[in-house]
Amino acid sequence: MTEIMEAAAIEDKKIEIALQKELRELAYDYLFVVLTTPLKLKLSPKYRTLSKRVRWLRTNVIKPAEILLSALSPQNSIMLSEWPQDEMSVNAPNSKLLKNQLFKIHDRVSQLERLLSGRVEESCDLTVEFLADLNLHLYEILKHHFPQIVPSRGTYTKGGSGGTMHGRYIEIARIIVSEIFPGDRTIANRFFADLGK
């Protein structure tokens, strides 16, 4: 936090404590997404295209849930008759709870499948969407705590293997992104490349 406050040129313990709390929440939320979502980022699980994910959801969750719900429907109850019970050693599941949970899984995954299908149709890139979302939330936090710092893409300086953006807002954002995703330069590089557009 010291590095962020120094880059912002602000000495205010109340702002520092409030900012730290918000940045922790931001870090937790976005790190969780990176670690659990197949994005084109180093820390993410193996990348899968949206169309592959949609097909997988249909094949491995939605269809099997529909088959199981149909099998557990009242008209098929005779197939599950447990008489004679003298050999049954496993307790019977709560059928009502089981069906409710299966419906929830089916409906939730079906909703996810529709959302991802919509993004496939729009040729969306979830990695770009993730970085834009992170940028927006970071902007809102910094604007709230540092209203005097004008958000800008900074100034471009050419260097040996390319160039870099410089500026107070960029420097603060760079520190934060590097702290949230330590050791993963791909996130920081893509974040600042997109910010520079």
The structural domain count equals: 2
Report the C-alpha radius of gyration, rounded: 25 Å
Strand order across the largest sheet = 1-2
Mean pLDDT: 87
* Helix and strand composition category: mainly alpha
- Oligomer description: single chain
List the helices and strands and how they pair.
Blueprint: H1 2-8, H2 13-36, H3 50-71, H4 95-121, H5 126-145, E1 155-159, E2 162-166, H6 168-180, H7 185-195
Task: Pick out its properties.
single chain, 197 residues, mainly alpha
Task: Please give a quick description of this structure.
The chain is mainly alpha-helical. The chain has helices at residues 2-8, 13-36, 50-71, 95-121, 126-145, 168-180, 185-195; strands at residues 155-159, 162-166. 16% of the residues are buried.
Architecture overview:
The chain has 197 residues and is mostly helical. It folds into two domains: 2-33 and 126-195, no CATH class; 41-75 and 94-124, no CATH class. 63% of the residues lie in helices and 5% in strands. A two-stranded antiparallel ribbon has the order 1-2. The model has no long low-confidence stretch (mean pLDDT 87).
